[in-house]
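Hello,

Our lab assistant flagged a job as stuck in the queue for most of the afternoon. It eventually completed. Since we weren't sure the result was trustworthy after the delay, we are filing this so someone can double-check. Below is the sequence as submitted and the structure that was eventually returned. Let us know if re-running is recommended.
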Amino acid sequence: MNNKEFIAFLSEKNGTSTRLTAELTNALVAEVSSQLEDENTVSIAGFGAFEVKKKLERVLVNPATKQRMLVPPKIVVNFKPNNALKDKAKSK
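-- returned structure --
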């Protein structure tokens, strides 16, 4: 399902216009992104939690050349699904 199909589905389900649904969806994504930029955890009831994790720098070895490379530290976003969402996915 792409973004356009998702917006159309939500607007039909809620009986609202696609324009309003798109604005609300964009506002939700913008706020979640803003909170993650501030390194806050965002929990959505019945869905799951988005959290920011810091990965430390590490050394990798290229198996072909045996050359050692230093991978710099980085920040990644992690999603942990709610147990109810996990159960729904497992039941299908």
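-- support follow-up --
The delay was a queue issue, not a problem with the job. The result is valid. The longest strand covers residues 48-55. The radius of gyration is 19 Å.
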